[in-house]
UniProtKB/TrEMBL annotation:
It holds the Pfam family Ig_CD22. Most highly expressed siglec (sialic acid-binding immunoglobulin-like lectin) on B-cells that plays a role in various aspects of B-cell biology including differentiation, antigen presentation, and trafficking to bone marrow. Binds to alpha 2,6-linked sialic acid residues of surface molecules such as CD22 itself, CD45 and IgM in a cis configuration. Can also bind to ligands on other cells as an adhesion molecule in a trans configuration. InterPro entries: Ig-like_dom, Ig-like_dom_sf, Ig-like_fold, Ig_CD22, Ig_sub, Ig_sub2. Residues 21-90, 115-202, 207-294 form the Ig-like domain. PANTHER family: IG-LIKE DOMAIN-CONTAINING PROTEIN, VASCULAR CELL ADHESION MOLECULE 1. This is B-cell receptor CD22. Predominantly monomer of isoform CD22-beta. Also found as heterodimer of isoform CD22-beta and a shorter isoform. Interacts with PTPN6/SHP-1, LYN, SYK, PIK3R1/PIK3R2 and PLCG1 upon phosphorylation. Interacts with GRB2, INPP5D and SHC1 upon phosphorylation. May form a complex with INPP5D/SHIP, GRB2 and SHC1.
C-alpha cells in the first residue's frame, strides 16, 4: 500500500497485455457490505506478442501490491471490506499508438455498514495444558447470534461452550494436538463464505523424546556385543518450538553435548552399563527419557561364548549363544 492509503486487503492486479488488446469491463457501480468480499472484474484478450502493462488505481493513489498476472484476466479482489474501501477504481493501459497511456474509468465501489460484522481474534501463543477461551461477537444490531466451531475433533470432556446475545465463547484445555487447529465463527443464519472468520491456534509444548540405540556392526537381532560401537540418539517425537539444547547423563555423571542428539561409545564394555538419560529443552520447558543398559562380560562355557545383555526392565535380552 502506498502513500498512506488505508485500503484493507485490496490487491493490485498488474498484468501484461498487447497493444491490440480488447478490454472488457464489469459493472460501473458495485455495492457491498463491510466484511464481505468483492471482485471488480474485467478481462482482456491479446492479438500479438507485444508486451504492455495494465495497472489498477484507487482514486489518485496507486495500489502497488501485485498478486495476479494472467494472459486472460485482470480482476481485483477486495477481501474483508472496510468503509474506507469505498471510492472510484480505474486502470491505466500502457499500449502503443492510440492506446498509449490511456486511463480508463472503471467501477465505483460503495461499502455500507454490516449489522452482523464479526470480531474473532486469534489468541496469543498458549502452552500445553493451559485453559483457553475463544470469544466471537457481533454487533448488537445483528439479529443472528454467532457460533464457534472447531475444525477437527476436540475432547468433549475438555470443552465448555457458551452463548449469549451477540457473543459466543468456547473454553477448553489445550493439548499439543491442538497446535495449528483451526476454529471458525459465523452467525447462525449466515450463507456468505466471506462472513466466516477463521483463526488458528498456536500451542507451545516441551520436547517429547525417546532413546534409540544403533550398534555397529548391524545385526538382524537387537543384540549388542561387548566391543561394539554403539550410538545413543535422543530422538525428538514432537516439540514446539524445536529443541535448542540436549543434555546426556550416565547415572549421575554429566555428559553434556550441546546441540547434539547423539553420544557414541566406540568400544562398549561392561563398565559402560548404567542409566542413560537424554533431556531436550526448548523455550517452553524440558523433558527426558531414561534407558537402563546392563552389559555382562562374555564368558566361556562348554566351548561357546555367551553374552548376557539386558536393555531396560521392559525389554530384557535373552542369553545369546555365539
Amino acid at each position: 500500500q502506498s502513500e498512506g492509503k488505508t485500503l484493507s486487503s485490496i490487491f493490485l492486479c498488474s498484468i501484461l497485455a498487447s497493444s491490440n488488446s480488447r478490454i472488457t469491463l464489469s459493472d460501473e457501480n458495485v455495492s457491498a457490505q463491510a466484511g464481505l468480499c468483492v471482485v471488480l472484474a474485467c478481462s482482456f484478450t491479446t492479438e500479438d506478442k507485444d508486451v504492455e502493462n495494465i495497472t489498477w488505481y484507487k482514486h489518485d493513489g496507486n495500489v502497488t501490491k501485485t498478486i495476479f498476472g494472467s494472459p486472460e484476466k485482470c480482476s481485483v479482489l477486495i477481501h474483508d471490506l472496510k468503509i474506507t474501501d469505498s471510492g472510484n477504481y480505474s486502470f491505466r493501459f500502457v499500449g502503443e499508438g492510440t492506446y498509449k497511456w490511456v486511463t480508463k474509468p472503471f467501477t465505483s465501489l460503495t461499502v455500507a455498514d454490516n449489522p452482523c460484522l464479526l470480531t474473532f481474534e486469534e489468541p496469543k501463543t498458549v502452552t500445553e495444558n493451559d485453559n483457553v477461551t475463544l470469544t466471537c461477537h457481533t454487533l448488537t444490531s445483528c439479529t443472528s447470534d454467532p457460533e464457534i466451531k472447531a475444525l477437527g475433533p476436540l475432547s468433549p470432556s475438555l470443552i465448555q461452550s457458551k452463548k449469549s446475545p451477540n457473543t459466543a465463547t468456547l473454553s477448553f484445555k489445550v493439548t499439543w494436538e491442538d497446535d495449528g487447529r483451526m476454529f471458525s465463527c459465523q452467525t447462525e443464519n449466515n450463507t456468505d463464505p466471506c462472513l466466516i472468520r477463521n483463526i488458528s491456534l498456536t500451542v507451545g509444548y516441551p520436547p517429547d523424546v525417546d532413546i534409540v540405540i544403533s550398534p555397529e556392526p548391524e545385526r538382524m537381532t537387537k543384540t549388542i556385543i561387548q566391543g561394539d560401537k554403539v550410538t545413543f540418539t535422543c530422538s525428538v517425537k514432537r516439540s514446539n518450538p524445536s529443541p535448542d539444547s540436549f543434555t546426556w547423563l550416565k547415572d549421575t555423571k554429566d555428559k553434556t553435548h550441546i546441540d547434539s542428539k547423539q553420544i557414541t561409545v566406540k568400544n562398549i564394555q561392561p563398565e559402560d552399563s548404567g542409566k542413560y538419560t537424554c533431556s531436550a529443552r526448548n523455550t517452553v520447558g524440558s523433558r527426558s527419557k531414561t534407558l537402563q543398559l546392563t552389559v555382562q562380560c562374555k564368558f566361556y562355557t562348554s566351548g561357546s561364548w555367551v553374552l548376557l545383555l539386558t536393555l531396560s526392565s521392559k525389554h530384557p535380552f535373552n542369553i545369546i549363544q555365539l
